[in-house]
Amino acid sequence: MREDFEISIGSNLMRVLVIEDDRETAQFLQKSLKENGHTADLAGDGEAGLGLAIEGNYDVLIVDRMLPRLDGLSVIKTLRSEGNRTPVLILSALGEVDDRVKGLRAGGDDYLTKPYAYSELLARVEALGRRSVPEEQQTKYVVGDLVLDRLSHRVTRGGEHILLQPREYRLLEYLMQHAGQVVTRTMLLEHVWDYHFDPQTNVIDVHVSRLRSKIDKNFEKPLLHTVRGAGYTIRDGPV
Amino acid sequence: MTALFDRIAKAASTTAFRWSAAAVASYLLAAAFLIGFLFSKTNDILTEQTLAGLRAEARFLLGEAAAGGAESLRARVAALSRPDGPGLYFLSDAASGKLAGNLNRVPPELAGNPDGGIFAYQPQRTTNGRPRLAVAFPMSLPGGQSLLIGRDIDDQRAYAETVWRTFLLGFGALSLLGLLGGLTVSRLILNRMDTITATSRSIMSGDLSRRIPIDGTGGELDALAHNLNDMLDRIEGLMSGLKEVSDNIAHDLKTPLNRLRNSAEAALRESRGADGYREGLERTIEKADELIKTFNALLLIARLEAGALEESLETFDLGALVEDVSDLYAPAAEEAGFNLSIEARPGVRVRANKQLMGQAVANLIDNAIKYSAASGVGNAITVKSGALGDGAFISVADRGPGISACDRARALKRFVRLEESRTKPGTGLGLSLVAAVARLHHGEVRLEDNDPGLRVVLVLPRRCMIASVSEGDGRRLEVAAS
User: Fold this and answer.
1) Hey, are the CB atoms on B300 and A203 less than 8 Å from each other?
2) Final residue of a domain: which of B282, B303, B324?
3) In this structure, are residues B233 and B402 in contact, taking their beta carbons and an 8 Å threshold?
4) Whether residues B246 and B354 fall in one domain
5) Percent helix, strand and coil across chain A, each to the nearest 5
6) Do B372 and B262 fall into the same domain?
7) Please, which residues have CB within 8 angstroms of residue B404's CB and are 6 or more apart in sequence?
8) Do B336 and B441 have their domain in common?
9) Between vectors from CA B476 to CA B472 and to CA B477, what angle results, nearest 5°?
10) Domain count of chain A?
11) What are B's interface residues with A at a Cβ cutoff of 8 A?
């Protein structure tokens, strides 16, 4: 049983700093993030961005790679060398082969190539924002009556044991780790399969629907939902 | 006349001429030094030999004087003194008065020189002839007398002079010949160079079909012309390839751009209220995403063609990767009615870009699903990987309609898409990307007949290999990584 949701309004509202030299893009991001209940400050070049990032207390930084005065990677390197661990999402027009590796090596936490879908960016920002909240290594994820035990690798729903393939288990683990948040297909491909390429077709959908048939099929209340135009989310009850 | 002078001046200013002139000059310098040294040494030796003969004669005459007295010596000297003989004598008393001999005085050059030396004298018979050269040796005798004995060395010197003059003549002739040779060679090279320059100018002005003429002598200039022509062939090939590529890119991007525009226009035209607009906008975004995918694929291929991805190479098990990617696609393949079977041999470790290899496998499986669907012949897709010769391979075989033999070579050319693929969903650049990934790893893609169906084989060369487990006994074969 599927239900479509609009893009979620995140439960934890975040302060985001957008360091982007293209004004139109920056204002679009600011407006969109605001619509999703977050607040966003803008910086038009690397130096201003670095200053704001050091002074302000942000949950997530969105950093464009090519910036005037100080390029994005240098901003991140400087921040990291000063001990600032704010999660950074790198935006780049550069391709994905070596640039991604370079971006993450410089201290970025996630990498998104332009052009991107806003829903993709929002999902990633929310996933990163969650990370900044110090969260103890949980041994158990619980969503409603669905329980995933990370020590015994056992999944139960309403006390009933559900047998999952290893890949299905990892898929569910990632979804439950981000319970309540939207997780995009690309995020699943990157984190569950560790692939950073375009799979051509929506191969992820079939995996998710198989997982759904195992955890939701025989139960009245669905937990794994499709978010239209964005991805998936696992949560207890609609919105 | 001035034209000829100009040509000579031009030839003289060439590098070839300067080098040949320098070679001639250094050769002549060395020869002059050698000959000069030999000349002066020969003269010294001959003079020394003459002096040694004189000393022996002097000892003999002194012995004569000791045995027979002064008179006997005078008689002997008088006897030896022939007017035009090579021997020269002057015997004088204590007051320097001449006692005997064919010289009339001690030559001024030798006055006060007890070791003797070279002097000039006037032969008695030819009083108006030029003076001749001689070498002489003075000695004092008991009783205040003194004797000068000498030898004429003029003939000897004349011979040496002749040799010297001959050498100078040769020197001059050689210099002239060397310079003329240098000029000729420069002129010849200059002519060829002028041809090459003229050709390259007309190529620069746009005529890429021009080639440098080859005179068929097979010399190094011909070899150079050959190489330049080969280079021009390659450039011309690349240029026409580039044109083909830009035509294809234009088609690949303009078609989806047009579709995007169409869907936006359609949404505007059909006023169906908020829902209608919403649907139209969603369709537009869908088209934009398609366009982005195509653009990304084109960009990625272009980047791979540019080569060099040293930074992102990793070592991994090829079989594991193939199995992994196949597992990702298996449910989707099943859903589409295919039976995806995997035969990946573990233990083949390669050094390559893992993401790109994964993408290649994904594209091949995706193509197999797309193009062999509803063919009716069969629905089996077989993915294999393992060692092949020195290298490794990945193959994806389907039971679809395949690609006809004549279209196979074309299908692999960069950016080329078979007409059929343009109507299918997706970018249709999958195979081009696989070929680009193979080229980047110095491997190749082969399209084979699966009888029926298509089998695409991606071959990785030996340089990508880290280790391979040999067939059968499972023994580990270490392969040197280059």
Assistant:
1) no
2) B303
3) no
4) no
5) 35, 20, 40
6) no
7) none
8) yes
9) 100
10) 2
11) 282, 285, 288-289, 292-293, 296-297, 299-300, 303-304, 309, 311-312, 324-325, 327-329, 331-332, 334-335, 353, 355-356, 358-359, 362-363, 366, 369, 426-427, 430
- The low-confidence residues of chain B, meaning pLDDT below 50, are 472-482
Q: Are residues A82 and A166 in the same domain?
A: no
- Rg of chain A taking only CA atoms, in angstroms: 19
Report the domain count for chain B: 3
Question: Quick one: tokens of A160?
Answer: 């009933």
Contact A197 B362 (CB under 8 A): yes
Which ipTM did the prediction report?
A: 0.79
Does residue B176 belong to any structural domain of this protein?
Answer: no
Q: Which of A81, A116, A132 is the last residue of a domain?
A: A132
DSSP state of A178: T
Q: Do B426 and A167 touch (CB under 8 A)?
A: no
- CATH code (residue B411): 3.30.565.10
Looking at A111, A132, A153, the residue that finishes a domain is A132
Query: The domain containing residue A73 runs over which residues?
Result: 4-132
**Nearest residue to A16 via CA among A5, A30, A27, A4:** A30
Chain segment B185-201, per-residue pLDDT in tens = 888 888 888 888 888 88
The CATH code of the domain that includes A105 is: 3.40.50.2300
pLDDT one-digit tens code per residue, B224-277: 888 888 888 888 877 877 777 777 777 778 877 888 888 888 888 876 778 888
Query: Which parts of B377-475 are beta strand (E)?
Result: 380-388, 391-397, 444-449, 454-460, 465-469
Instruction: For CA atoms A99, A105, A111, A114, give the dihedral sign.
Output: negative
Tell me which residue range forms the domain holding B282: 220-303
Give phi and psi for A144, each to the nearest 5: 60, -125
pTM of the model: 0.63
- Asked if the Cβ–Cβ distance from B303 to A200 is below 8 Å, we say no
CB A149 within 8 A of CB A140: yes
Q: Is A206 on the interface with B (CB under 8 A)?
A: yes
Beta-bridge mates of residue A184:
A231
Of all residues in chain A, the one with the smallest CA distance to B299 is: A95
Show pLDDT as tens, one digit a residue, over chain A (239 residues). Answer: 344 444 444 456 889 999 998 889 899 999 999 998 888 999 888 888 888 888 888 989 999 988 888 888 999 999 999 888 889 999 988 766 678 888 888 888 898 888 888 888 999 998 888 754 445 567 888 888 888 888 888 888 888 888 888 889 999 999 998 888 889 998 999 889 888 887 777 889 989 999 999 888 888 888 888 888 788 998 887 64
Residues A116 and A151 in one domain: no
Question: Which residues of chain A neighbour B289 with C-beta distances below 8 Å?
Answer: 117
